[in-house]
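Let us practice reading a record.
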Amino acid sequence: DGLITNEPAQSVQVTAGEQIGKVGATGNVFPSGEAGAHIHFMVVNDKNGDGNFNDNIPDGITDPFGWQSESIDPWPNFFFNYSGKNRFGNLSFYLFKKNLENLNATLTSNGGVFNNGRYTVKAPQEITSQNLNLQIKSSPIVNITSSLVSVGSTIDMTARDSFGNLVTFFPQFFEILVDLKIMDLSRFKTSTLQFYSSSDGITWTPINTEVDLGNKKAKTSVNHLTHFALIGERIDITAPITTAELEGIGGQADWFKSDVNLVLNAKDNEEGLGVDYTLFKINNGDWEVYENPVPLDEGNYHIEFYSVDNDENIEGLKTKDFDFKIDKTVPKASINSDTQYIWEPNGKMVDVKIDGYSSDENLLKTNLIIDDEYDIFDKTEAVSSDYYGIIQLEAKRDGSDIDGRLYIIKIVAEDLAGNITEKQINVIVPHDQRD
């Protein structure tokens, strides 16, 4: 709601700083690998300045993250033919408001203190006999294993002499400090925090580290420059488990006699950080965030769903199929007898004629039930929906039974959804024949 556009493949012109989307889980997001909540957008440069961006697709498409390399941006020299025209790629521009936290400074024999975001590098005097170009470049989060992950971004440090040659080792030690006050440690076992170094970004080696949780600082000392990361062991490496069920008052098999809701229950492991969100898709619809039970009409449903916890552990995609019917209409039923009184109470068995009727489009069963006040001739039997028969009742009652012996005779009709209708008549063996 309120975004620039929600129409696929629709071109809309925006001005600098205007919101183009919200990172969320309302699109087609699939739980595979590093996939997660994301937005899709394209940045096009009006290369010929005619105000028409469409005639600069695809050769005007721009990487808005810029060309993050010391080598020359190759795209302006990339030649290709598209729609019968010879074209060249476009220069990469860094278009985000917040600059990358990279540092380019001169390291002299006096040493110095160099800051790059949350990292501080301290170089002592006489660490070098020549002026060096020191670069401290912010680098992405690294995952050594599924449980060992960097706490925030990492840094890649290089030093070059005046001829451009790399200087890797030094006679004295640098001190690298990281400020933990601005870092989220809630997902890490703080006792495992340790600096690691890597020359290739693949193989990582732990380094002696001092962690001061009271002052929220961690530091290490090194005499070489390479890629450094503060690594911690994650508290939660297990994805949530989600189940899908139908909520309603059920009857036989897949029948319900009430409104039906789809209920998704997500649960994180006992030591986990809790469930962040659950996504679901019904049939061929869009992915949605599950917040409350989802009302469903009767029919066939293919449900896809998964959950993500607060440490971005993504559950594997699950599916479940439902096929159910809803029937809220109770059956029709009636019952009659040829008498309401049995006289005289001589202890003989007396024939009572009963006719009963039941009907429903989804009728499951019809029962004839005899409920004897004295619990002697209680009986339940299945009968046809159009019932006619003779039952025998005892013409007897206790002498102290002032209101007489009561027989309750019922026709009970039940449909597949569990809707029940009861109709009854009373047959009495009275105490006497007075009103």
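A brief commentary: The chain has no helices and 29 strands.
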